[in-house]
Amino acid sequence: MQSEQRILDTVDDDLRLTADIAIPRAELAWRFSRSSGPGGQSVNTTDSRVELRFDLATTGALPETLKARALERLATRLVDGVLTIAASEHRSQLQNRHAAEERLVNVLAAAIAPPPRPRKRTKPSRGAIERRLTDKRHVARRKQERRRPED
C-alpha cells in the first residue's frame, strides 16, 4: 500500500520510483477503451479501460545504467522499447488510471533493482550427509520388503 499512497500523493507531480528517480507525467501516454465484462447501464458508453504506455528506450528519467538493466529485464514485455500496462479491474476510469500508474511504478522499480548477491556454495555438514544416506537406505529397505519373495 506504500506505493499506492505514493501515487496518490503525486497526482500532479512525477511518479516516484525511488527517492532520487521520478518519471515525468509528460512521458506517459494514455489510451482509453471500453472495458469488458459486466458493468450495468453504462458499460457500453464508458471508456473505463486504461492503457498506459511508457517509452522506456527513449526516456531521460532513468540513468543509462538503470535504463539498460530495465531494458534487459523487461525485454519480453516491450514492443519497440515501449512498456504497455493495461488496467480494467475497476469501473471508474480514474481508479484504473491509478492502478495502471501503481503497476508501472512496481514493474519499473523491480526492473531497476540491483541484482541479488550471488549465492555462495556451501558444503553440506557431515550430519546432513549421514541423514540423507540413512533415509536413502531406509527407503530402499522398505521397497525391498514390498517385493514378492523369490521361490
Beta fraction: 15-25%
SSE order, one letter for each helix or strand: HEEEEHEEHH
- The first-level CATH class is given as Alpha Beta
CATH topology: Double Stranded RNA Binding Domain
SS-based class = alpha+beta
Summarize this entry quickly.
This protein is α+β, with helices and mostly antiparallel strands and 151 residues long.
Word description of this protein:
- With 151 residues, this protein is an alpha+beta fold.
- It has one domain (2-112): Double Stranded RNA Binding Domain (2-Layer Sandwich), CATH 3.30.160.20.
- It has four helices and six strands.
- Strands 3-4-6-5 form a four-stranded antiparallel beta sheet.
- A hairpin with a 2-residue loop joins strand 5 (78-79) and strand 6.
- The radius of gyration is 26 Å and the shape is elongated.
- Mean pLDDT is 86; it is low at 6-11.
